[in-house]
Design the sequence.
């Protein structure tokens, strides 16, 4: 009897995983920057807001940041979209705080309320994504920037990681 119950539980768990895979979340899948497009660059700047929280600025190069176009199915949005005018890939960004996805980003500036942060060290990460929510990859690296923030220290940004940082004009 225990064998039969064990077999049934195993069957149900396998079937359940298969069902979950059929409705997979594509936001955790990579998409390569096309060979005919330049690799986008992303850096982050964080400043304290005058009222509360922080202001995050995305500094971008070779990337068209925008909301997904209307009237397309998710299947249509899974591939790369390249701007005909600039030749840069198009997409949006995802904001993560302490590893939790907070929201999509369609513009270069965003306010981060204090309620998103815990005491001690926090991480603010931004990934660049296609309109199907897949994250961009170039040279086997995710296009991502992360700030480590400790509100009790000066300066409060204690470490910066950027896989493809922007190039300063005076460098």
Sequence:
């Amino acid at each position: 009897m225990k064998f039969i119950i064990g077999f049934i539980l195993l069957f149900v768990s396998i079937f359940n995983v298969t069902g979950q895979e059929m409705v997979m979340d594509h936001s955790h899948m990579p998409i390569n920057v096309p060979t005919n497009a330049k690799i986008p660059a992303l850096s982050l700047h964080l400043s304290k807001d005058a009222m509360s929280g922080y202001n995050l600025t995305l500094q971008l190069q070779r990337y068209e940041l925008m909301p997904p176009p209307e009237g397309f199915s998710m299947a249509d949005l899974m591939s790369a979209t390249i701007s005909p005018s600039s030749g840069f890939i198009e997409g949006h960004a995802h904001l993560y705080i302490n590893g939790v996805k907070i929201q999509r980003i369609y513009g270069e500036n965003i306010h981060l309320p204090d309620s998103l942060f815990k005491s001690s060290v926090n991480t603010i990460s931004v990934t660049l994504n296609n309109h199907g929510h897949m994250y961009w990859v170039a040279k086997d690296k995710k296009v991502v920037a992360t700030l480590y923030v400790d509100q009790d220290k000066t300066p409060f940004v204690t470490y910066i990681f950027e896989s493809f940082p922007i190039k300063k004009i005076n460098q």
Q: What stands out?
A: The mean pLDDT is 86.
